[in-house]
Amino acid sequence: MAPSFCPPSRLLLGPGPCNTPPEVLEALSRPTIGHLDPAFLELMNELRERLGRLFGTKNQLTVPISATGSGGMQAVLANLIEPGDAVLVGIHGVFGMRFADCAERLGAKVTRVESDWGTPLDCKAMAAAAAGKSFKMIGAVHAETSTGVLLSADRIDTLRDAADQSGALLVLDTVTSLAGLPVELDARGVDATWSGTQKCLACPPGLSPISLSARAFEAIDQRTTPVSSWYFDLSMIGKYWGSERTYHHTAPINMLYALHEATDLVLTEGLDERFERHAAAARHLWKGLEELGLELLVEEPHRLFPLTAVRVPEGVDEARIRADLLDRFDIEIGGGLGPLAGKIWRIGLMGMNATTATADHLLNKLAKVLNE
Amino acid sequence: MAPSFCPPSRLLLGPGPCNTPPEVLEALSRPTIGHLDPAFLELMNELRERLGRLFGTKNQLTVPISATGSGGMQAVLANLIEPGDAVLVGIHGVFGMRFADCAERLGAKVTRVESDWGTPLDCKAMAAAAAGKSFKMIGAVHAETSTGVLLSADRIDTLRDAADQSGALLVLDTVTSLAGLPVELDARGVDATWSGTQKCLACPPGLSPISLSARAFEAIDQRTTPVSSWYFDLSMIGKYWGSERTYHHTAPINMLYALHEATDLVLTEGLDERFERHAAAARHLWKGLEELGLELLVEEPHRLFPLTAVRVPEGVDEARIRADLLDRFDIEIGGGLGPLAGKIWRIGLMGMNATTATADHLLNKLAKVLNE
């Protein structure tokens, strides 16, 4: 029999997961109880309220889906999209592509507006594509994890205007932004979103916080076909998380303990303080990377704080650098995806890792492995 | 700010989750590492091999799905079923109904064969329904958690024969049987299955071990439509778990540590020894319940060892009994579902709780609350 698994001690500075704080690991290991235990129902209520604060929303359906971030995407899209629905998706990275692919598999007629990877989404082109047409949904990625590009508040506002004109729901992927950048669903008029736990929330992967507006719920009520996914049927899931407490599936109890603790840490720190910490760490990292002679993929105004994409210098074997950092210094950073594979590194300073000291540690080791 | 959540100390004797052994809780709380870390890929390989031993199969695609047991059902059915496919499902409880509902939402033309709840599935009626017809899939529940009824090996063989005659895949829900009862996918010719972690595996809920035969994979290869669920696309999931290691979604790292540990505990104990322990505990419970004057729902030859359904005596408020057990003695047992709501209790002796001492403890407290 193989011995128990002892994970190496890594500093996780890739695109996620980031390191899990000890308090959250401890919460994860508390004794399992039943998914209908009165004590557990209390935790569920608190969790909904906390997620609402993180998402900046009073939406009633603000709950963690029992799957990873992409499962939250699947849940939201499977409920909002009926076969034949027209959907407009902005694409400038892997996660916009995934959004469009997921919608298309559900039977949507997808219109894609593409911008270059590493540049911000061209929201005027999105508005132009929507103009005079009727769409069920306009979708985009708030923080494109494959490139490190932000969809700024004014760009989201442009998409909201376009959605109003074409009668569409506005749907955002907030996987890498939640708890690291302001999300503000209600202020921006976002109708539906999904996130992940292993990014700025600093909780292990395995749950996907989602939120749907009343307007999004109306769209579900008006469906003429049943939701094709039994598991992700949000009307049934809402009845477990709502006052009915109707059994749907067995909730992932211990992961929910962890998310409960992780959201507590976020709110105890304060959202603004946390955003500022992520910003300060990222700015420090950017400066250090430039001092090493490295070039950043994204122009400063469009950069994400939680995730930075760095161009691999000419002649450098990017995989060797990543392997060296991992093998010699137990530091994980990410490589590029799709057309950026081999061309960039992705460095995440998320959750407890969003500190200038962590940035310095990485810069120091990166300088070592680059100069050998 | 609300304080951290401190779960009460419960003895979980309902239909699942059961209590999680300390070793598994400890594994859950080990530091998170990356989903493509070489050390983690090792764990994945071991886990596949161990799950194969638990399922009694050499199937290549034997992996945990990143969702709960019902998510594994969703994944298996979404990949095997195309709209218009004919599917035959045996129903004698909630989980057969769920199977049929899930298939129907995916566009299957579902034929239902129903048996009374609490009795075994009438597999001759299933064979008669299949005779002379072509089905894509014949499905049933191995251990019906809502009633405590087993689908015995000879009944599975009858279904396998029927599947052969009608060109169908044989698909079983093994949520409550895996690691508590022999599953033996290869010996029984089962083409696809899903299970859960929170039953006899004694791991927290949140993952669904599944397995697909080569024949099932051929059916996926021959699809003329894409799998409607991006998240549950098994061809892509198989490439992450296979030698390609292609990123699909971020695996629930810490939950996989826990499952790795839980499977280690099962195999260290020995499958036969574990089955025998579940059987001995259940027989002890049955005897004790009858000595209390209670009547069991299911006739002995068809009873599940991990889960026992007991009729609520005339005039007894079943919810009061469950509340008393929970409030006074921290013991959770389950109520009935659907037509059996209010009529039965469901008592699980699963995983570490499958001991005669645990059965005695429950019997003692149950006698107390019944006689007050």
Describe this structure as you would to a colleague.
Two copies of one chain form a homodimer. Chain A is of the alpha/beta class. Chain A has two domains: 11-16 and 270-370, Aspartate Aminotransferase, domain 1, CATH 3.90.1150; 22-267, Aspartate Aminotransferase, domain 2 (3-Layer(aba) Sandwich), CATH 3.40.640. Chain A is built from 13 helices and 14 strands. In chain A, the strands form four sheets. A seven-stranded mixed sheet of chain A has the order 2-10-9-8-5-3-4, sandwiched between helices. In chain A, strands 11-14-13 form a three-stranded antiparallel sheet, covered by helices on one side. In chain A, strand 6 and strand 7 form a beta hairpin. In chain A, helix 1 (22-28) packs antiparallel against helix 10 and helix 2 (38-55) crosses helix 10 (253-269). The two termini of chain A are 41 Å apart. The mean pLDDT of chain A is 97. At the A-B interface, helix 1, helix 2, helix 3, helix 4 and helix 10 of A face helix 1, helix 2, helix 3, helix 4 and helix 10 of B.
